[in-house]
Amino acid sequence: EERIVVFAGAAATPVYEEAAKLFEKRYGIKVELILSGSGKVLSAMTITKRGDLFIPGSPEYMLKAMRQGVVDNSTVQKLAYLMPAIIVQKGNPKNITSLEDLSKPGVRVGIGDPQSVCVGLYAKEILERSDLWERVKPNIVTYAPSCSATASLIPTKSVDAIVGWHVFHYWYPNKSEIVWIKPERIHKISCITGTVTNFTQNREGALMFLEFLKSKEVKEIWRKYGYFATFEEAKVHAPNATTAI
């Protein structure tokens, strides 16, 4: 059975799962998805020396993989964009309207682990640049090990708010709400990028799936789950922000 192995950050789990099924049905190539925090999948891929594609949830981990020499730099492609946002419980019972509100007494906050999860790194950077990290840190009750684990903190009611990707709301639309961060507070928009690895056993199949993730058909899947398919769509919420790649 022809297959490709994809090491990917969990920031776009629903898109990868739906796109993989379509790809398998159309081309007969099995897609094995290995999903977790971007740092964790990069480490796993590097240690095991396997995998055909690497798709981290932020460009910082793509740049790290490029520096380590484990990916083919010539094949890097931009796929979609993510915006940092505050995600709160449905109805916003704690009345959280800004980053400052995350430091209020009694507010339980969750973020991804900044050491291995791209959205955790972004959350910490935004709070630090806003001079709020030391004030909010005492309210952080958990550091989640992946994007999907970060997002699930809201529907499980483990926290009152998370600083995560805006799409987490669309993963759980009936249990969450978005509180957009002020545009001047956002200096970086995250770009999901993909590339063929230097360990690939099926380069042609890997390139086919990478191009499929950029196709017009899959762009609509990105949009269906709330992702920004173009940089212009993302910049509406942060006109002065840039991406690392």
Can you lay out the helices and strands and say which pair or pack?
Elements: E1 3-9, H1 13-27, E2 30-36, H2 38-48, E3 53-55, H3 59-68, E4 77-82, E5 84-89, E6 109-112, H4 118-129, H5 133-136, E7 140-144, H6 147-151, E8 161-165, H7 168-171, E9 176-179, E10 190-196, H8 203-214, H9 216-224, H10 231-235
Parallel strand pairs: 1-2, 1-3, 6-7, 6-8
Antiparallel strand pairs: 3-10, 4-10, 5-8, 5-9
Concise structural overview:
With 245 residues, this protein is of the alpha/beta class. The radius of gyration is 18 Å and the shape is globular. The chain has helices at residues 13-27, 38-48, 59-68, 118-129, 133-136, 147-151, 168-171, 203-214, 216-224, 231-235, and strands at 3-9, 30-36, 53-55, 77-82, 84-89, 109-112, 140-144, 161-165, 176-179, 190-196.
Can you put this structure into words, describing what you see?
The chain is an alpha/beta fold and 245 residues long. The chain has 2 domains: 3-81 and 191-235, 3-Layer(aba) Sandwich (D-Maltodextrin-Binding Protein, domain 2), CATH 3.40.190.10; 84-185, D-Maltodextrin-Binding Protein, domain 2, CATH 3.40.190.10. It has helices spanning 13-27, 38-48, 59-68, 118-129, 133-136, 147-151, 168-171, 203-214, 216-224, 231-235, and strands at 3-9, 30-36, 53-55, 77-82, 84-89, 109-112, 140-144, 161-165, 176-179, 190-196.
**What is the tally of beta strands?**
10
Total domain units: 2
Strand order of the largest sheet: 2-1-3-10-4
Second rung of CATH, namely the architecture of the largest domain:
3-Layer(aba) Sandwich
pLDDT below 50 for ≥5 consecutive residues: which ranges? none
Average residue-wise pLDDT = 96
The value of Rg in angstroms is 18 Å
Supply the helix-strand structural class: alpha/beta
Q: How does the major sheet shape up?
A: 5 strands, mixed
Could you tell me the strand content as a percent range?
15-25%
Can you write the helix and strand succession as a string? EHEHEHEEEHHEHEHEEHHH
Let me know the CATH homologous superfamily of the largest domain: Periplasmic binding protein-like II
Shape: globular
CATH fold descriptor of the largest domain: D-Maltodextrin-Binding Protein, domain 2
CATH C-level class of the largest domain is Alpha Beta
Alpha carbon gap, first and last residue: 35 Å
**Helical segment count:** 10
**What is the percent of helical residues?**
25-40%
